[in-house]
């Protein structure tokens, strides 16, 4: 076990006990191999969002509703609009959101986030964008949805390390994942050098990239 793993294990011992629904969702995700944020990652994201205090969050990639429920539970003044294209995961997310009692503050859409048009029927602008969907499409998600960000908006991108695969040489990455990993690396370089955003890459969970819109100077 390296130091980062030891730190994560230590942090885990200080995470508050989770309620039954959250525990059940984590068990379901593990059993059916559905990717959800790691405990340290989601706790860190929630901490950052508590500082930011966004009123409206757009999440790309609902999965079974885990992150949306965790965020809405922790930030009681925040509304979440979340998009999921997988029919089965969408149905499970709807079920979980209903059980959480957060249907008034979490709106979920069954759609491909790259194809749907967000109009005023959903939301006009939002304060935070959370990208946690197809890793090879992160740049397309970023470019499509950042125009809807408010002037002080923040983008959070999960799985930037992709279980350590971004650290490997191309030949050492499984063939089925090589294109995705290349695109994820390209996206990371692109965002980190983007002239309109101040960005930071943090070794939290599976890698969390945070991009903050620069303030316009009048």
UniProtKB/TrEMBL annotation:
It is an enzyme of class 2 (transferase). Its EC number is 2.1.1.-. SUPFAM superfamilies: S-adenosyl-L-methionine-dependent methyltransferases. One of its GO terms (molecular function) is methyltransferase activity. One of its GO terms (biological process) is methylation. PROSITE patterns: SAM_OMT_I (PS51682). S-adenosyl-L-methionine binds at residues 37, 67, 84, 112-113, 132. Homodimer. This is tRNA 5-hydroxyuridine methyltransferase. It comes from Sporosarcina siberiensis. The gene is trmR.
């Amino acid at each position: 076990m390296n130091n980062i793993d030891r730190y994560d294990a230590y942090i885990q011992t200080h995470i508050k006990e989770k309620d039954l629904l959250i525990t059940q969702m984590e068990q379901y995700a593990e059993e059916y191999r559905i990717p959800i944020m790691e405990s340290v990652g989601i706790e860190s994201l929630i901490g950052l969002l508590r500082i930011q205090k966004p009123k409206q969050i757009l999440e790309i990639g609902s999965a079974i509703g885990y992150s949306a429920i965790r965020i809405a539970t922790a930030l009681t003044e925040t509304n979440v609009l979340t998009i999921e294209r997988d029919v089965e995961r969408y149905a499970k997310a709807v079920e979980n959101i209903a059980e959480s009692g957060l249907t008034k503050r979490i709106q979920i859409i069954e759609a491909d986030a790259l194809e749907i048009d967000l109009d005023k029927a959903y939301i006009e602008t939002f304060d935070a964008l959370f990208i946690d969907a197809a890793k090879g499409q992160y740049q397309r998600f970023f470019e499509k949805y950042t125009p809807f960000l408010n002037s002080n908006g923040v983008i959070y991108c999960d799985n930037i390390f992709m279980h350590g695969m971004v650290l490997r040489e191309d030949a050492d990455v499984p063939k089925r994942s090589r294109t995705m990993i290349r695109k994820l690396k390209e996206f990371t370089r692109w965002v980190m050098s983007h002239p309109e955003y101040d960005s930071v890459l943090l070794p939290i969970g599976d890698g969390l990239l945070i991009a903050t819109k620069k303030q316009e100077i009048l």
